[in-house]
């Protein structure tokens, strides 16, 4: 049987469940079976026990109160219901050592779930000169480089010490707590990827590999392939 992968989704103001089709396409292409999880769903333990892997998708900002901060004036759209559900489900999955891949907002949720914090608005919080992280090109095109940390799982997937990624974010990971470690950094120092040193597959990327896969980006293909492989392994 194909590994069953839960995909988190947004609840728009009209009450519609929204999720970009690139996520399920990427999971199918890598050999998994995607299922979309409505935001705010309550049966976390049952969902957690049935899923073989969890994909935390992109979206709005995490409520800063969750990581102990007051909201910056430039904070974007919040969805506290979604935060609560994703954080609880991530905790359950990682407690059971089931694979989790966090993308963009999902990478940030993953960091918060392990007690980390976020830069709420990188252009007003970080003093260094920053590259453009909210690209104006279509999302399937890479626009900035990241240095991949040697010895990480991500480095194995990338097969190079530097890769090009797309970038659609105004927030970034700030404090990172063990067992998560930083595995990729943009040229301006912004943290772009994380992984756990204690789990089979717990990884976050600030970019959108599911969109880069539309142009057959090899690192993105490898990332999804290993995610689905880990989800399919008996443990
Ligand atoms: Mn970026």
UniProtKB/TrEMBL annotation:
<dbReference type="InterPro" id="IPR029062">
    <property type="entry name" value="Class_I_gatase-like"/>
</dbReference>
<dbReference type="GO" id="GO:0016740">
    <property type="term" value="F:transferase activity"/>
</dbReference>
<dbReference type="InterPro" id="IPR011697">
    <property type="entry name" value="Peptidase_C26"/>
</dbReference>
<keyword id="KW-0808">Transferase</keyword>
<dbReference type="GO" id="GO:0033969">
    <property type="term" value="F:gamma-glutamyl-gamma-aminobutyrate hydrolase activity"/>
</dbReference>
<protein>
    <submittedName>
        <fullName>Glutamine amidotransferase</fullName>
        <ecNumber>2.6.-.-</ecNumber>
    </submittedName>
</protein>
<dbReference type="GO" id="GO:0006598">
    <property type="term" value="P:polyamine catabolic process"/>
</dbReference>
<dbReference type="InterPro" id="IPR044668">
    <property type="entry name" value="PuuD-like"/>
</dbReference>
<dbReference type="GO" id="GO:0005829">
    <property type="term" value="C:cytosol"/>
</dbReference>
<dbReference type="Pfam" id="PF07722">
    <property type="entry name" value="Peptidase_C26"/>
</dbReference>
<keyword id="KW-0315">Glutamine amidotransferase</keyword>
